[in-house]
Design brief:
This protein is an alpha+beta fold and 598 residues long. Among the domains are: 171 residues, no CATH class; 83 residues; 114 residues, Histidine kinase-like ATPase, C-terminal domain (Heat Shock Protein 90, 2-Layer Sandwich). It contains 18 helices and 5 strands. Strand 2 and strand 3 form a beta hairpin. Helix 13 packs antiparallel against helix 14. GO terms for molecular function: ATP binding; phosphorelay sensor kinase activity; protein dimerization activity.
Length: 598
């Protein structure tokens, strides 16, 4: 069920994240950061040499528990809580330097691992047990925050921030886990929540470079916030909202650009009143996460909107950036930037960044257009090849049988009066040739209707205008040899092209389940119409196959599905679900959708 390896680095990276899981990638990224940071601190001349390496056992233990939590959430989380307390005692006793990140005295790996353990516990463990496990993790975290080098704690400004940020992380992890909890398959509210989560996941995975840049910007702001205190929280909150809007700009760039512009302007106006001083350095007067958010919004705006319609929103962003820079470049206090040379330099740098963002957006717009042309050309070539194959079939098979019928009929007419027995034998041969010609014609008709190729199974359904009936017949055929549940909420009539494509997507997905899903016991087909879109989901409860399926796998099934969806300007998501099964989801617009111009 894998498609050919993508050629671009971005596509390969996205495919890698989909296969291993975003939580694993995030955990290893945090671990890599801590390895580099702690190693550099352990080899310097400050403090005891190599003493900093004492935090590594605790960091690796928490990372291991977070990976274990993907399978055994409760046990792994309790083990992680015990490990956190145990290594806190070791750090306190041997006076090993503790490193702070989002939470005081906790490394970034320990924070990420704790959040992931809370998420998996809230998602998979029974409510009462989950409450006890999460409470234990919270107590262990508090012990680590207050138990490592306590003589510095009461004078540290980071403890208050740790309580606030820790509470926000806890609430976010618990809510996200509760939303994704498995419930009854026919629960409409749960289906809607899952659909929204998958849309968010597809939105995020499609622009991971922006996510990385926003993450770095927010990390810098968190680090600066420790030097100021809670006064910096309004600016930090604006930066987080701007980051969310920048990610959403892939889908609604016009609205997101105005939101980011408003947040930059709001933060710029409020910042002088907060008197943050030099402890919260925003660089050119704008926090780094907001700079990245504005850059990403411009890229997505130019990517999907023609420039004449994009200019007013780009101008609004530019005005917000200029006002914020003039108000906050001179620190601290209310000191308006008036130096012409500095203003000119800032204008040049801002114009340069804006030009780079516009150039990247135009490049991505051109690449998207080329990709659509390539898909259309590939489909056209495939249709041409199919027509040639049908012509060969007509000439080699059907015409052959029909010619035989004509010859036999002529012979019977010529010899029938003289030798009736010969005429009788010729009629038998005509009958056999007619049966063979009829069978060949039926194969041809099935091919022309777009059914599965020969060898894929005995069931080759024809697409009608009743998609629900077609899907029921497809499932009842049992071609994929797996019990399948149907959840359909479809109107009586759908556009024929949408119904045909939907039927092919479900058929290919079920065929793949029969070939690839190891130890699967059940499959689910879900189809509904919501918000002028046909939403399809096909999933199983199997695991990744340990060997190649019988007959091998060509790997072109997902390619064909992506091409069908692309021709209808829809969206497709295919990959392994959190519980191990394979999941294919598609959203097909019910109305024709041309190229977006604004």
């Amino acid at each position: 069920m894998s498609e050919p390896s993508p050629t671009s680095f971005s596509a390969r990276a996205t495919d890698f994240v989909n296969r291993v899981g975003a939580s694993v990638v995030l955990l290893f990224a945090a671990l890599a950061f801590d390895l580099v940071y702690v190693t550099s601190a352990a080899l310097d001349d400050v403090g005891g040499r190599f003493l900093d390496f004492g935090v590594f056992p605790g960091i690796f233990a928490m990372a291991g528990c977070a990976l274990w939590a993907r399978k055994r959430a409760a046990v792994a989380s309790m083990t992680g809580a015990l490990a956190l307390v145990a290594f806190t005692m070791v750090i306190h006793y041997y006076r090993v330097p503790a490193y702070s990140s989002v939470l005081a005295n906790l490394s970034i790996t320990e924070v990420v691992a704790g959040v992931e353990m809370v998420y998996f516990t809230a998602r998979r463990v029974r409510p009462r047990v989950a409450f006890c496990v999460i409470a234990t993790l919270v107590v262990a975290t508090m012990a680590a925050v207050f138990g490592r080098f306590p003589r510095y704690i009461y004078s540290s400004a980071g403890i208050t921030q740790s309580l606030v940020f820790g509470f926000l992380l806890l609430v976010a992890a618990v809510l996200t886990g509760l939303i994704g909890r498995p419930q009854h398959a026919t629960d409409p509210q749960r289906e809607e929540r899952v659909r929204r989560l998958h849309r968010i996941n597809d939105l995020a995975m499609g622009q991971w470079p922006l996510l990385v840049a926003l993450g770095l910007g927010l990390f810098l702001e968190f680090a600066q916030a420790y030097n100021v205190g809670l006064r910096s929280f309004p600016i930090l909150f604006c930066s987080m909202l701007a980051a969310v809007a920048a990610i959403y700009s892939r889908r609604e760039p016009a609205r997101a650009s105005l939101v980011v512009a408003g947040l930059i302007l709001l933060a710029g106006v409020v910042m002088p009143f907060l008197r943050l001083g030099y402890g919260y350095e925003p660089g050119t007067g704008i926090p780094p996460a907001q700079v990245v958010a504005g850059f990403g919004v411009v890229v997505n705006l130019v990517r999907v909107t023609v420039l004449p319609k994009a200019w007013p929103r780009i101008a609004a962003l530019s005005v917000a950036v200029a006002v914020s820079t003039l108000l906050n470049f001179e620190r601290p206090g209310f000191r308006l930037l008036t130096d012409p040379q500095t203003i000119g330099l800032g204008a040049v740098l801002g114009s340069l960044l804006l030009g780079i963002a516009i150039a990247i957006g135009l490049f991505l717009r051109s690449r998207d257009s080329e990709h659509q042309q390539v898909v259309k050309a590939a489909v056209s070539d495939a249709q041409t090849a199919e027509r040639m194959a049908l012509a060969r079939e007509l000439h080699d098979v059907v015409a052959h049988h029909v010619t035989g019928i004509v010859v036999q009929a002529q012979a019977a007419r010529m010899t029938g009066e003289k030798n009736p027995q010969l005429a009788y034998e010729a009629m038998a041969r005509i009958e056999d040739a007619g049966v063979e010609a009829l069978a060949a014609m039926r194969r041809l008709v099935r091919s022309m209707r777009g059914d599965a190729p020969a060898g894929s199974g005995e069931f080759n359904e024809q697409a009608t205008t009743d998609l629900a009936a077609d899907l029921r017949r497809l499932v009842e055929s049992g071609n994929h040899r797996l019990p399948t549940s149907l959840h359909l909420d479809l109107p009586p009539h759908l556009p024929q092209e949408v119904g045909r494509s939907a039927l092919r997507l479900v058929q290919e997905s079920l065929t793949n389940i029969g070939k690839h899903a190891a130890d699967a016991t059940e499959a689910l087909v879900h189809a509904e119409v919501a918000a002028d879109e046909l939403h399809l989901r096909v999933m199983d409860d199997g695991r990744e196959p340990a060997r190649r399926p019988a007959g091998g796998s060509g790997g072109y099934g997902l390619v064909g599905m992506r091409e069908r969806v692309a021709l209808l300007h829809g969206r497709l998501s295919a990959g392994r679900g959190p519980d191990g099964g394979w999941r294919v989801e598609a959203w097909l617009p019910l109305e024709p959708n041309g190229e977006t111009n604004g």
